[in-house]
Specification:
By secondary structure, the chain is α+β, with helices and mostly antiparallel strands. The protein is built from 11 helices and 8 strands. The chain has a 4-stranded antiparallel sheet. A hairpin with an 8-residue loop joins strand 6 and strand 7.
Length: 512
């Protein structure tokens, strides 16, 4: 009867638990919840940002992008998470201090009798030395060499993962800075050229209307007027395409700085800075890249982290020593001592596991060779990037010189067209065509300079140079911008990078 009285409630509880588990169903989010989540995410995108109070310099744009860029924020959080995981793992090296308490009970007495080994006769009547219901408690301290070794290697592995996360953060920051360098100068060119492009488009469309009227009235030969219209239409098409490019560059810069689409953005319009030239020894840049590139450093830390797995497997082969010290309590009234201290030491080893040692040594050697090969292959790719980046930058400098010359020639042609302007329709059209060529040359000049800055940024990135302080989130925008400017200037004036090549003043066409 007692057996069934205990079994029935247990069976009922098990059935109830199974029913509860089978009844759990996930419901999809409602449309209202989705909309609320989207609004909350949009607010978080632009929260806790310093307001834009004036025109933005390149260094302020870089500071805003580094401080508020969402990809960079994500890498910061990943680095913080890796640090927290390391801290948690380090606690596993401490001894285990376990406190326990409980209440024990049974529906009958525990006890028994004893019999003689030789004659099998009962020598004692049935007795018990344990109460049916009692309380127990203990406080024990235990320490194991195996647990300590595994926790030590795991903590060291987590520390390497922190370093890897930090290198990924550096890489994201370098990529953000490169993207800002690429977008800022294009956006500044857009700010310079868009008003003039819009004005010229309006005058070109008006000239087209006049040309159609002249064609209808027969004021000029039909072939000549159609040729003028064809030239005007080609100019409108090119200007429209360039205008779209200019607008896209401004939108890209807003996104990099995490500015809302409707937020005002005015860039500081100053003459384009001098473009630096490379030192004669590209080999020094290659050596610097092998030391500074985050990807190579991450692979180096990964090699050490991979070795920790083999170290853990080897630690499980050796003898494990366990030490135990504890204080115990039992409320059993039949005990002579209800409180007692217990100590113990235990040494154990799995002898069969020692057979895995040669395989582990071979695996460790193969892992090292694989990691080294991966890092060397990556290093070769990095050197190629540096060489290609240096060559690309040199070519973009030539493009800037060619664009400057083209702009100079088109400016002279525009002056000549204006000086030779007559009252005839053809002269007006020729001036408009000259203005269109001049604006297109201005666009090409701005694009060439932006391409040179982008190539310079890629070379920066290929070397792995950092131009920002380690704790970006602790700086305000102005201080961070000043720090970026200081480090950038020092880099460009170093022995490897000489700031001697003129980029020329920014094209600022004044065609009216």
């Amino acid at each position: 009867m007692g057996y069934w009285s205990i079994k029935a409630p247990g069976t009922a509880m098990l059935a109830l638990a199974l029913a509860a588990c089978s009844g759990v169903k996930q419901q999809p989010y409602t449309q209202e919840e989705t909309v609320d989540r989207a609004k909350a995410d949009q607010v978080k995108m632009y929260s806790d940002q310093e307001p834009v109070t004036g025109p933005i310099t390149f260094y302020e744009a870089a500071a805003r992008a580094l401080k508020y860029n969402l990809d960079y924020r994500l890498k910061l959080m990943e680095s913080a998470l890796a640090t927290n995981l390391r801290d948690v793992s380090s606690y596993e090296m401490l001894p285990r201090l376990v406190a326990s308490a409980g209440h024990l009970g049974r529906n009958n007495d525990s006890g028994g009798t004893s019999i003689g080994i030789e004659d099998r006769q009962v020598s004692l009547r049935a007795s018990t030395s344990e109460e049916r219901y009692r309380y127990i408690g203990s406080l024990g301290l235990s320490w194991s060499t195996l647990d300590f070794s595994i926790a030590y290697y795991r903590t060291a592995q987590k520390a390497d993962q922190i370093m890897m996360a930090e290198e990924r953060r550096r890489k994201v920051a370098q990529n953000v800075l490169q993207d800002v360098r690429n977008a800022y100068w294009r956006a500044l060119g857009a700010q310079r050229l868009l008003p003039q492009v819009d004005g010229l488009l309006a005058r070109t469309n008006d000239a087209l209307r006049q040309a159609r009227e002249a064609q209808d009235k027969g004021l000029l030969p039909r072939q000549e007027i159609l040729a003028y219209q064809r030239a005007l239409l080609d100019s409108v098409s090119l200007l429209t395409i360039r205008r779209q490019d200019l607008e896209f560059s401004q939108a890209e810069l807003r996104a990099l700085m995490s500015l809302p689409a409707n937020a005002p953005m005015q860039l500081v319009d100053v003459p384009n800075p001098l473009l630096p030239t490379l030192g004669p020894d590209i080999g020094q840049l290659e050596e610097l890249a092998l030391v500074r590139r985050p990807e190579i450093m991450e692979e180096w830390y990964r090699k050490r982290a991979n070795e920790r797995d083999i170290d853990i497997a080897k630690a499980q082969l050796w003898p494990n020593v366990s030490l135990n010290v504890g204080r115990n309590y039992d409320s059993n009234a039949y005990l002579y001592n209800n409180y007692w201290n217990a100590t113990g030491i235990d040494v154990s080893i799995n002898l069969l596991k020692l057979l895995a040692l040669p395989s582990l040594n071979a695996t460790q050697q193969s892992q090292r060779e694989t990691d080294d090969s991966r890092r060397i292959a990556l290093s070769m790719a990095v050197l190629t990037q540096v060489r290609v980046g240096a060559l690309r930058y040199q070519l973009t400098l030539q493009e800037v010189q060619f664009a400057n010359e083209s702009l100079r020639v088109d400016a002279s042609l525009l002056d000549y067209a204006r000086a030779a302007k007559k009252t005839t329709l053809g002269s007006d059209l020729e001036v408009i065509r000259a203005e269109g060529r001049y604006l297109l040359s201005g666009y090409q000049r701005e694009a060439a300079f932006a391409n040179a800055e982008a190539a310079w940024g890629r070379l920066y990135n290929s070397v792995g140079l950092d131009v920002f302080p380690p704790a970006i989130e602790s700086y305000d925008i102005k201080t961070l911008a000043g720090e970026i400017q200081r480090v950038t200037t020092e880099m460009e004036q170093s022995a490897l990078l000489r700031n001697t090549t003129g980029g020329g003043a920014g094209a600022n066409p004044s065609a009216q």
